[in-house]
Amino acid sequence: MKYNIKQLQQNNLPVCLREFLNYLSTIKGKSPNTIKAYKLDMMMFFRFLKLYKGLSNADEFENVQISDIDDTFLSQIALSDLYAFLSFVEEYRANGSYARARKVATLKSFFKYLSTKAKVINENPAADLESPKIDKRNPVYLTLEESKQLLSAIDSSSSNGIRDHCIITLFLNCGLRISELCSINISKIKTDTLTIIGKGNKERTIYLNSACIKSINDYLVIRSQQLSKSKKPLSLEDKDALFLSRNNRRINKRTIQIMVKKYIKKAGLNKEKCTPHKLRHTAATLMYKYGKVDIRSLQKILGHENISTTQIYTHVDDEKLRQAVNSNPLANIDDN
Hints:
DNA polymerase, domain 1, hpI Integrase, Chain A, 2 domains, 15 helices, 3 strands, globular, disordered N terminus
């Protein structure tokens, strides 16, 4: 793998942040996506503090230099500064409760590292930092008929159509995250199982039903034909990738997002902001509602760390609630 020297040096980052990110990677085993999110959160936090404390004259927020932040600066950060930052991202960055909760998690992790591991501060200002209350919402999902409608909207007579049908099929049947789907390697497919690296860099096994197996086999034929016509050899990084773009590169998240949006529109579905993640919700909902999957099993299938995350799918028992109300002995008494 080739490394970009600038990425390795990261001279625009303060030493404390570089060491924290290295700790997350080498000791905590966090995924690249998690590390990137923590890095962006902390860069925003430091830039805000430099402006908030009048220590920068930069004309643009992104131009605020943070490489000079040292242990003295860190030791002067108070809990009030953290709340000021959260107020800033809510008011000026339009961060909702989910986004602010993630930033709270980043700050708590960073300052815990500074106080207990790096030992560069005596008191942890984030120790009593509270996370914003997150309102629980029922997930947006497609019904069974709408899911069939979406699959029918894909033209499977073309090579891209066969690939896209396979992608949508895996989303609707396996409940994969978009990052997990992009990362699927052919070598990890064994008969009716698929091994992926999920959130938190954790490995989990996905079980493939007959629709998934057929869809993958159909696409592998097309994939092979696509490569045989190409004059450009596959890179080592893309050779094992299941899903390829037109340029024979591992498919990326943006391509899949655009593709899903296209077929949602083509299918005539009016689901607001129906993203690949909503298809993951759909798979979980259909399994829970029609497959009678218990919540613990569903937790393992989806790769949720906490059972509370999986419990949002209990909303699909609305029909049972309706039946319960109608079973009330007073339900059929005539008011007259």
